[in-house]
Amino acid sequence: MGRKRQLVENLWSKADVRGDDECWNWQGHRSQQGYGVFCITGGARLAHRQALALHQGIEVPPSKVHCLHACDNRACINPKHLRWGSNTENMKDRGERNANYSWIESEEAIFLVRRCLNGETRESVAREAGISVSALRWWVEGRNRPEILQQARKLAAESQTEQLSLF
Ligand SMILES: [Zn+2]
After folding, report:
1. pTM above the 0.70 mark?
2. What distance lies between CA 19 and its chain's CA centroid?
């Protein structure tokens, strides 16, 4: 109890604790990925994982259980912005919140748009890629990251010329 209480106080004292709706940014050391790092006996721990576990009064789960940020702010340790989830959920979460899908490499996006230009339905392409139909539509219509559509068209035109020259 004594040790645990100490840990709780240390943890919150290293964050900029604000209102429930606001992010509580970690003021201490951060990992390369931008997560708060907390040193306890036995080594360094990720602060947001500690924060959620402490808030819920549980032990920190194994690392395959991810601690997801609803606010997308990795430095935040406000337990109201955190929940446990799988890696798939982690990816899905990022995707759904991030309308730009900037985490998808351009080459992959170009490939997906090309398939749509070739006549595959947006629904099936999006489902297979694990992105939303609306995100795909924005690329196909050139309204988001227009260079993706340009590249896809260019590649499609090139392959068409090749096909035509065969006949
Ligand atoms: Zn937050």
Report:
1. no
2. 24
